[in-house]
Write a structure and sequence with these properties.
Rossmann fold, Pantoate--beta-alanine Ligase, Chain: A,domain 2, 2 domains, 6-stranded parallel beta sheet, globular, binds pantoate
């Protein structure tokens, strides 16, 4: 595996491959890699000639400074892990390398059709501006044929699809199913920050989503959201930030089942200090 920390080295390396019309698969990450990330790398490697993974804890997408400060940074361990899967290139730039000039980034020219202002967009102000900024920059550097994102961050995936469509970028976005722990908890780099007790109780999130899915026909949308909120909040380790039912494509919230033929249930839950998100198709 080749490891690069500068844009120049990486683009020089990729240039030859691009000229040879090789398919470049790209898996952008913030590190603290887990099996969910590795499954994206395996998928990329099965569909492309070369797979590039980036590790960059992007400061511009953190709305909470303590979340940024405490985000796990495990580059050495991540590098070793990537060597065990079919990753060809690791790009691990510094903040100065990614953002050489002070610039105010705005994506005002992209119409996200409201996707950016609900759920994560509403509760994490500025988060998606930072995500779009870094992903656009990474796409400009790597110029991937295909890019892979997990469905745990379902809204992020929808935002990136919209950005690509709106800016007409020559990359195919591939969404990949959520990878879960043995007890159903969606894999996330933040899980590593949970205490043993918190980790145990966090399993209730997915268990509740599953029961909600089974009960769709029996309740109204409002009743279902209320039930999920109550079940999760009854557990003393958990505190719900939002429970939302939305259309899978527009991500706009629905109040009646018949408003959408493809619905998803989304939750954001604090487990102690750690904020986790999950979603399930209904
Ligand atoms: O999903 C993530 O890990 C990040 O939001 C991403 C896409 C790597 C951008 O920093």
């Amino acid at each position: 595996m080749q490891v690069f920390s500068t844009v120049r080295e990486l683009t020089e390396f990729l240039d030859t491959l691009m000229k040879a019309e090789k398919r470049i698969g790209f898996v952008p990450t913030m590190g603290a890699l887990h099996s969910g990330h590795l499954s994206l790398i395996e998928k990329s490697s099965s569909e492309n000639d070369i797979t590039v993974c980036s590790i960059f804890v992007n400061p511009t997408q953190f709305n909470n400074p303590s979340d940024l400060a405490n985000y796990p940074r495990t580059l050495e361990r991540d590098t070793t892990l990537l060597q065990t899967v079919a990753c060809d290139v690791l790009f691990a730039p510094s903040v100065a390398e990614m953002y050489p000039k002070d610039e105010v980034f705005s994506f005002q020219n992209i119409d996200f059709k409201g996707i950016d202002s609900v759920m994560e967009g509403k509760y994490r102000k500025g988060h998606f501006t930072g995500v779009v900024q870094v992903v656009k920059r990474l796409f400009d550097i790597v110029i991937p044929t295909n890019a892979y994102f997990g469905e745990k961050d379902y809204q992020q995936l929808a935002i990136i699809r919209r950005m690509v469509q709106s800016l007409n970028l020559p990359v195919k976005i591939i969404g990949c199913a959520i990878v879960r722990e043995f007890d159903g908890l969606a894999m996330s780099s933040r899980n590593a920050r949970l205490s043993e007790k918190e980790r145990e109780n966090a399993a209730l999130i997915y268990k509740t989503l599953l029961v909600a899915k089974q009960n769709v026909q029996k309740t109204t949308v409002e009743e279902l959201k209320k039930w999920v909120t109550e079940v999760l909040n009854t557990n003393t380790f958990l505190r719900v930030e939002y429970v939302e039912v939305a259309d899978s494509a527009t991500l706009l919230s629905i109040d009646e089942w018949q408003q959408s033929s493809s619905r998803r249930l989304f939750v954001a839950v604090f487990v102690g200090e750690i904020r986790l998100i999950d979603n399930i198709v209904l």
